[in-house]
Amino acid sequence: MSKDSTRGSKKKVSCRRLGGYLKEQKGRLYIIRRCVVMLLCWHD
């Protein structure tokens, strides 16, 4: 039983890490996209 409980906690931690990583990437992609749009629209 102890093995299963450690496995479950590890899974939770990895899921949390993955969620945080995805959130970080989403933020980065959003910023990069905004910059690209600004550069493309800035003709002056």
UniProtKB/TrEMBL annotation:
Domain of life: Eukaryota
Gene Ontology CC: plasma membrane
One annotated GO biological process: negative regulation of cell population proliferation
Parts forming coiled coils: none
UniProt xrefs under Pfam families: DVL
Signal peptide positions on this chain: none
Membrane-related topology note: Single-pass membrane protein
Keyword tags: Cell membrane, Developmental protein, Membrane, Transmembrane, Transmembrane helix
Localization per record: Cell membrane
Family designation: Belongs to the DVL/RTFL small polypeptides family.
Name the record gives this protein: Uncharacterized protein
Lineage: Eukaryota, Viridiplantae, Streptophyta, Embryophyta, Tracheophyta
